[in-house]
Write a structure and sequence with these properties.
The structure is a single chain. The protein is built from seven helices and eleven strands. It is α/β, with parallel strands linked by helices. It has one domain: Spore Coat Polysaccharide Biosynthesis Protein SpsA, Chain A (Alpha-Beta Complex). The strands form three sheets. The chain has a seven-stranded mixed sheet, sandwiched between helices. Strands 2-3 form a two-stranded antiparallel sheet. A hairpin with a 2-residue loop joins strand 2 and strand 3. The two termini are 31 Å apart.
Length: 239
């Protein structure tokens, strides 16, 4: 089974602001000396089922990123491709670069560096069995549906899931979903929505983790530093 991981990393990070690293591009902000993107790549390099990693970047970042990746001396292929103006365009560009014998494609936010390898293996296995699977968590807060600033209804939490990544799909299914979206001029913030429109398979949900945070604002960096120190401590204990 050939599993390709796509990391869309062409975003401008407008919500992050400019931190000490000198950039507002959240995927390139430094976390204990290494860009967040590199921390994320490292996680997938340690996943047994992953065959290759493809990073979709802005054209001006590609050479720099290649240098960073080379320094990691990856034991699996890690390629960079040019991304697009949106996440959807970036993922579609990466899809066109994949080998025809690819079995599954996992799409993961480049700024979720604390994904657990066991969870990656679990969602890959689910997608291999069903055709489509994502990682998600049940919200702990009460969710309200509003119009402007007025509540219209309270949504039952047992029927709600906060979607995370990776989102994993059969290669042929995901290509078809992107083709249909392009023909219909349909855009979405995640790949599962595109696959859902096909109505060919039901997308399974694998229980995610509160630690699988998406770093989108400056305050997230404090939590990220804490998680990274905990991982380092756990690694020292294990060794």
């Amino acid at each position: 089974m050939r599993v390709s991981v796509i990391l869309p990393a062409a975003g401008l990070g407008t919500r992050m602001g400019r931190e000490k690293s000198g950039t507002s591009r959240k995927q390139f902000m430094l976390l204990e000396g290494a860009p967040i993107l590199i921390h994320t790549i490292r996680k997938f390099l340690h996943c047994p089922s992953v065959t290759e990693i493809v990073v979709a970047l802005r054209a001006e970042d590609m050479d720099w990123a290649r240098g960073l990746i080379h320094q990691e001396r990856p034991e699996k292929p890690v390629r960079v491709v040019e991304g697009g103006e949106s996440r959807q365009q970036s993922v579609e560009n990466a899809l066109t670069s994949l080998s025809p014998d690819t079995t599954l494609v996992a799409v993961h936010d480049a700024v979720r560096p604390f994904i657990d390898s066991a969870l990656v293996e679990k969602v890959i296995a689910e997608a291999a069995a069903t055709g489509a699977a994502i990682v998600g968590i049940v919200p702990v807060d009460t969710v309200k549906q509003v119009q402007r600033n007025k509540i219209r209804s309270t949504l039952p939490r047992e029927h709600l899931v906060l979607a995370q990544t990776p989102q994993v799909f059969r290669f042929d299914l995901l290509k078809l979903a992107f083709e249909a979206a392009r023909q219909d001029s349909f855009t979405s913030t995640d790949e599962a929505s595109l696959v859902e429109r096909l109505e060919q398979v039901e997308v399974s949900v694998v229980q995610g983790s509160d630690r699988n945070i998406k770093i989108t604002k400056p305050s997230d960096m404090d939590l990220a530093r804490l998680f990274l120190s905990e991982e380092a401590a756990a690694g020292r204990t294990a060794s």
